[in-house]
Amino acid sequence: MERVHNFNAGPGVLPEPVLRQAQQDIWNIAGSGMGIMEHSHRGKVFEKVIADAEAEARSLAGIPDNYRVLFIQGGATQQFAMVPMNLLPAGRTADYLITGVWSDKAVKEARKFGATHTALTGEGSKFTEIPAPDTIRYSDRPAYVHLTTNNTIYGTQWRTEPPVPAGVPLVADTSSDMFSRPIDVSKYGLIYAGAQKNLGPSGIVLVIVRDDLVEVGPATLPTMMQYRTYAKEKSLHNTPPTMAIYVVGQVLKWIRDTGGLAAMAARNEAKAKVLYDAIDESAFFKGTVASNSRSLMNVCFRSPTEELDARFCAEADKKGLAGLKGHRSAGGMRASIYNACPEASVRALVDFMREFERANR
Fold this sequence. Notes:
With 361 residues, the chain is an alpha/beta fold. It has helices at residues 16-27, 44-61, 75-87, 101-110, 211-214, 227-232, 242-257, 260-281, 306-318, 343-360, and strands spanning 5-6, 67-72, 93-98, 115-121, 144-148, 150-151, 156-157, 170-173, 190-194, 205-210, 286-287, 298-302, 321-322, 333-336.
């Protein structure tokens, strides 16, 4: 069967060269006579796999030496808890910038562990726009500031990092746009990204954390909820999801081989422009996000009616355009055009949109 055009929001599309290599390495990796999923996480083959994955991440993003690169299970949702458990001491407040469902979930989880403050919210626009940075109102001496860089459900994205009070760590959930563009890691205290959108399969989170923040969490926390555990043991305290880490490493090599983060950003901007231009030029389809906040990863749009939205998604699926139904809380359509989504898929979608418009206007 031919592969479809995959617009799923996550788990999302993976690079075809990575999938081809994984086919081989599931059977026999590095001439070892067994597949990656069969190797001990304490053996030399996997030790090289995880070391290579870290090295690729460091090289791509220019990660400074005073940051640890960790591979942690539990998804980004577990980081909603781990961050405050480790970084929010008693008597301090954590500031959250709320721009969608996931940042709202993050602050609700943080409230279980300490005081929080909503320094900004996009609720007034129903999360269809990133509020201006000059509307942020920080608390006095926050322990950290947390934001979600890209909002998969509503299709908004921060263009750049907001200013934070001097000396306050910026913590970012970058699950749906990590390594889609250059990133200055030194601006952050901690970055985390669930892999299943831009970095690999589900089951693993990439965490980049500054050395001084690794040890601040209480030693009384459960062992697997302490960043120091992963830093000390090089993410190998227990058996990690070895296959997921392997695929992340392969994806990072693919990004390197296709020009690195600057080239990736240029490709992402070009293919997003193809789709946004088609929406803007249409008298039938309408984008749902303010133009100054549009995501390059998740493009949300609607037709004139919910009935037509449903018909569009059903007919698109039959034509091999998969995963276009919007999130159940937002409705409409959503095309997730992550790093591995080729421009040819975007152009196939645009062609179908024009065909559907002619047939239904």
